[in-house]
Write a structure and sequence with these properties.
The protein is of the alpha+beta class. It contains 12 helices and 23 strands. Strands 1, 2, 8, 9, 10, 11, 17 and 18 form an 8-stranded mixed sheet that branches.
Length: 529
């Protein structure tokens, strides 16, 4: 299987590494950091200079993403950079309380994308990722054994050829990797001639998020926290192209229509137009190459779901690549295929949810606006419907199909279970920082022999007079990405060992693989091909 762009001879060729990730946005940084933390050799390629900040379009970090960052010991540091919001007001006076979410993070964190990127870049570097800025992909081919990537330094034109066991395109909506693979990106533009700018405000709004849509316009104001605000506006009769000139007066007029005031907007440091697409690639995997984040799916900014979905793609893919490259999975091809099988439906769902939100906010015509008003009045009063909506937007409600032969709760998100104090902490997401599977059992159960996982125990309940301490009897195997792999109300030692063996092979005894958990298995460096 081959795919190629225009590439001539390289100045030099490097040896084979485990994974090359293209694109150093949030998705690529999280993925590369995970893979390097698992003991793999990882090169992260980014066309931008290191000093050039990525355009900050994402501000919302949702609860599920914060849980995944918590499993890497990063969530608390990111929370300190922003402001939590525990109530959403999507349109028409509707108010949805995020306190209903059963999570350690019952809010959406408002923080600029560059704060997330800085945190993930520090982690990727600390785990040994080779990050190459000023470096662009100009050619990609693959065969049954490896992926060949031709790179060019943007500063001096020097060319390099890398060979990798796998490659991941996390290089955005104009993905060079996707183009090289020849994969289509079907969809359409849903919002045209949207104006955005970074501005100062003389009269900041009372609400942290100023957000509203009318029959003629949509407006949005959000603070960076340093005196600058991101302003976004769209007018329903707008026909301008992305390249047409734009002025502050135009944006000010849109915000006055949508919000009732431009809040004294002045001194823009930049202003531009853009359009928003809804697109999704048909296949997230092509041989040894994978797509993640905006390279795989792009949608409207409504709901702040784009960056979060990409980060959750990365968390799903990273442990699977690590398990395959370390030889610790019984069926490598099935595990790699499960990335597309699990994440493609999520991407499709996000397109639908964000599309529905943007169409509701920008509803025109009396019938559509009446329907929106009815929904705004009814949804907050219907508990199950509100929980469903919050679960989808926050990511807490996202689940995967249970594996063949298993049943729920397999495939569902694992809550942050309380654990008995031990070397892996006192809750599940602390234990997941080992980077591998976590087995939760009642105290006294033996660890399945040779299994490279963290074995933890339920926290003992409060003791009542005349009764022994209450103990949970269930056994739960949790995947590295925080989803349930297997569970049983009770299990014999043999059943426990069989359940673990279906997911995790014993660590090789050669000393050539890195220990993912820090508990069992051998340590060492990844053997190069």
């Amino acid at each position: 299987m081959t795919a190629a762009l225009d590439a001539e001879g390289a100045d030099h060729t490097e040896g084979t590494i485990d994974v090359v990730v293209v694109g150093a946005g949030p998705t690529g940084l999280l993925l590369a950091g995970d893979l390097a933390a698992a003991g793999l050799s990882v090169t992260l390629v980014e066309r931008r200079p290191r000093t050039a900040a990525n355009l900050t379009r994402a501000f919302a970090v949702h609860a599920r993403t914060l849980e995944l960052l918590d499993a890497r010991g990063l969530a608390d540091a990111l929370v300190c950079t922003g402001r939590p919001i525990d109530r959403l007001r999507p349109f028409g006076g509707m108010a949805l309380s995020l306190q209903r979410l059963s999570t350690r993070y019952p809010f959406v964190l408002i923080t600029p994308q560059y704060e997330t990127e800085k945190l993930l870049e520090r982690r990727a570097l600390s785990t040994g990722t080779d990050i190459r800025y000023d470096c662009e992909l100009i050619g990609l081919t693959q065969d049954r054994d490896a992926v060949t990537l031709d790179l060019r330094r943007t500063t001096d034109g020097t060319r390099t050829t890398l060979h990798a066991r796998h490659a991941v395109g996390a290089d955005g909506v104009r993905s060079t990797v996707r183009t090289a693979l020849g994969l289509p990106f079907p969809g359409q533009a849903v919002v045209r001639s949207m104006v955005l700018a970074d501005v100062r405000l003389t009269e900041p709004p009372e609400e942290l998020l100023a957000f509203n849509g009318t029959a003629g316009a949509f407006g949005f104001l959000l603070p960076f926290g340093d005196g600058w605000y991101r302003a976004i506006g769209w007018r329903s009769d707008g026909r301008a192209r992305d390249t047409d000139p734009v002025t502050l007066d135009e944006l000010s007029s849109i915000l006055r229509t949508a919000l009732g005031s431009d809040h004294g907007m002045h001194d823009p440091r930049w202003i531009s137009r853009f359009h928003s697409d809804e697109r999704q690639v048909p296949h997230y995997r092509s041989g040894r190459v994978f797509l993640a984040g905006d390279a795989a799916h792009v949608h409207s900014p409504a709901g702040g779901l784009g960056m979060n979905t990409g980060l959750q793609d990365a968390a799903n893919l990273s442990w699977k690549l690590a398990a395959v490259l370390h030889g610790r999975t019984p069926d490598p091809e099935a595990l790699l295929d499960s990335y597309h099988r699990e994440r493609h439906p999520v991407g499709r769902l996000v397109l639908r949810v964000s599309g529905a939100l943007v169409r509701a906010v920008m509803a025109t015509g009396p019938l559509r606006r009446t329907a929106r008003s009815l929904a705004a009045a009814a949804l907050p009063r219907i508990g199950p419907a509100q929980d469903r909506a919050l679960g989808l937007v926050s990511g807490i409600g996202i689940s995967y199909p249970p594996p063949p032969g298993s049943r729920r709760p397999a495939g569902r998100r694992a809550p942050d279970l309380a654990l008995a104090p031990g070397p892996h902490g006192q809750r599940l997401y602390e234990a997941l920082r080992c980077g591998g599977f976590v087995l939760v059992t009642p105290p006294g159960r033996p660890t399945p022999p040779g299994a490279p996982l963290a074995h933890v125990h339920w926290r003992t309940g409060r003791r009542t007079a005349g009764a022994p301490p209450a103990t949970r009897t269930a056994c739960v195997l949790v995947r590295p990405d925080g989803y349930v792999a297997w569970s049983a109300p009770r299990a014999t030692d043999a059943e426990l060992a069989a359940a673990v063996a279906a997911w995790v092979l014993p660590a090789p005894a050669t000393g050539t693989t890195a220990d993912l958990t820090g508990t069992t298995g051998t340590t060492g460096t990844t053997q190069k091909a």
